[in-house]
């Protein structure tokens, strides 16, 4: 191998810890590694981008990535970083979630080229479903002591004196079951490395220890830094909740806006972690950003790169157009090119009034539209003054006092956008 995967993670700020010998193993030969994805929903959110990016880098460096979707472990729940027991999902919900995540992963990794290092998707339910409790206790449980398991932070934090919740036996067994996954992939697919977030170190090393004790094998571990925000708020959360990779849950416009609104400090970290731009390009961008921070060069570059990677070039172009509707010059045609979900995301929180389709088909006088039909302006007199001042726009285009609203003005067959001045918006919704 001519390139150094661990060094790549190091300069990007992704490397948290690596087991001794890991870097040497990866420099010596093509190696298989896996990361587990927890199917608590049918989509990953942007926190799940980090392990995907790890696997993508891994594949680009010539190694073989394995993405494990935890159909079995998802039935139990990982206690790492949790303060209490989570709700367990039934098999039908898990199957739906597993399929959703599989579809997302296939957008980032090469599963189908036929190359020696083509990625693989596996589901641990496939090998756990036939395993009896007695077999597991006899063949796996005897190799790891309770003392060893109790020493893990994920367990200690839940059992300390300040914790009121404690920990069920179900969650206590999680690290052993994850360890068994590593053992299975080690034996069946010669998988020598497991990667994950820094909170997974205890679970991963249980796997390497099980491999050592059960089959006298040597396995390795890498953990990446957990992403934090400079202001202390949680990464991957917006005012509306989680930011998801699924465009049905988080529109490409809102996804784009999340990265665009990152702080300067966070953006210096994010451009290394979430893009595949090379070191020279990134360092140049950081310098240019520091010289003219008001241009938000880093934020725009990250938003462009990540939106294109997660969604598509077309989705990125639409997100930029939607962003320009509020913050730049745009036309009625730009507005009418938006789907309903994106339109409502752009104008979230803008006051609305309802009008009937019949009224619109008959035509609504602009004065009535601004006052009587909407309440946007307080009186007909105010409406006339605003029109005389040339400050009224319908769907971003200036109108005069002789204008009549019609069905031709509809956006997404449902809305008309009224505007006074640059920032005062109002929506008419057809019912």
Please tell me about this protein's structure.
The chain has 431 residues and is α/β, with parallel strands linked by helices. The chain has helices spanning 5-11, 22-28, 49-60, 91-105, 125-128, 133-139, 146-150, 153-159, 169-172, 174-189, 201-215, 252-260, 264-273, 279-291, 297-310, 313-327, 332-336, 340-346, 357-362, 366-370, 380-388; strands at residues 15-18, 32-37, 64-69, 120-123, 191-197, 220-224, 237-238, 241-242, 352-355, 364-365, 392-394, 397-398, 404-405, 415-420, 424-430. The N and C termini lie far apart (64 Å).
In helices, the fraction of residues equals 40-55%
Largest sheet: 6 strands, mixed
Radius of gyration: 27 Å
* Principal-axis shape: elongated
User: How are the strands of the biggest sheet laid out side by side?
Assistant: 1-6-5-2-3-4
Structural class: alpha/beta
Cα-to-Cα separation, first versus last residue = 64 Å
Spans with pLDDT under 50 lasting ≥5 residues? none
Question: What value does the average pLDDT take?
Answer: 90
Number of helices: 21
Question: Strand percentage, roughly?
Answer: 5-15%
In total, how many beta strands? 15
Write the layout of secondary structure elements.
Blueprint: H1 5-11, E1 15-18, H2 22-28, E2 32-37, H3 49-60, E3 64-69, H4 91-105, E4 120-123, H5 125-128, H6 133-139, H7 146-150, H8 153-159, H9 169-172, H10 174-189, E5 191-197, H11 201-215, E6 220-224, E7 237-238, E8 241-242, H12 252-260, H13 264-273, H14 279-291, H15 297-310, H16 313-327, H17 332-336, H18 340-346, E9 352-355, H19 357-362, E10 364-365, H20 366-370, H21 380-388, E11 392-394, E12 397-398, E13 404-405, E14 415-420, E15 424-430
Parallel strand pairs: 2-3, 2-5, 3-4, 5-6, 9-15
Antiparallel strand pairs: 1-6, 7-8, 10-13, 11-12, 11-14, 14-15
Helix pairs in contact: 10-11, 12-15, 12-16, 13-15, 15-16
């Amino acid at each position: 191998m001519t390139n150094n995967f661990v060094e790549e993670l190091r300069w990007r700020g992704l490397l948290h810890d690596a087991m001794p010998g890991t870097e040497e193993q990866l420099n010596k030969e093509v190696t298989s590694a896996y990361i587990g994805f927890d199917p608590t929903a049918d989509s990953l959110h942007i926190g799940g981008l980090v392990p995907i990016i790890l696997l993508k880098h891994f594949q680009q460096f010539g190694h073989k990535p394995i993405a494990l979707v935890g159909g079995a472990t998802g039935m139990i729940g990982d206690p790492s970083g949790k303060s209490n027991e989570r709700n367990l999902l039934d098999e039908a919900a898990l199957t739906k979630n597993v399929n959703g995540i599989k579809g997302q992963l296939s957008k980032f990794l090469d599963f189908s080229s036929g190359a020696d290092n083509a990625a693989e998707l596996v589901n641990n339910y496939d090998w756990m479903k036939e395993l009896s409790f007695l077999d597991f206790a006899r063949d796996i449980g005897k190799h790891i002591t309770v003392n060893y398991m109790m020493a893990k932070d994920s367990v200690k934090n839940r059992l300390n004196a300040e914790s009121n919740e404690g920990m069920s036996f179900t969650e206590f067994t999680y690290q052993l079951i994850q360890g068994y996954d590593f053992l299975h992939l080690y034996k069946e697919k010669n998988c020598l490395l497991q990667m994950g977030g820094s909170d997974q170190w205890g679970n991963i090393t249980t796997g390497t220890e099980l491999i050592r004790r059960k089959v006298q094998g040597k396995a390795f571990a890498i953990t990446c830094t957990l992403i934090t925000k400079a202001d202390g708020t949680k990464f991957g959360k917006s005012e509306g909740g989680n930011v998801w990779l699924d465009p049905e849950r988080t529109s490409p416009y809102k996804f784009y806006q999340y990265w665009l609104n990152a702080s300067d400090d966070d953006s210096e970290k994010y451009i290394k972690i979430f893009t595949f731009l090379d070191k020279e390009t990134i360092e140049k961008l950081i310098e240019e950003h520091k010289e003219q921070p008001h241009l938000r060069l880093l934020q725009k570059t990250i938003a462009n790169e990540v939106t294109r990677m997660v969604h598509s070039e077309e989705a990125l172009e639409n997100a930029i157009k939607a962003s320009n509707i509020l913050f730049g010059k745009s036309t009625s045609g730009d507005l009418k090119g938006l789907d309903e979900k994106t339109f409502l995301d752009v104008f979230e929180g803008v006051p609305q009034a309802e009008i009937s389709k019949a009224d619109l088909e008959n035509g609504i006088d602009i004065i009535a539209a601004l006052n009587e039909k909407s309440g946007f302006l307080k009186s007909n007199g105010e409406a006339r003054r605003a029109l005389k001042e040339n400050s009224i726009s319908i769907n971003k285009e200036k109108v005069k006092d002789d204008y009549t609203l019609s069905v031709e003005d509809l956006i997404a067959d449902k809305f008309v956008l009224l505007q006074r001045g640059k920032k005062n918006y109002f929506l008419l919704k057809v019912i």
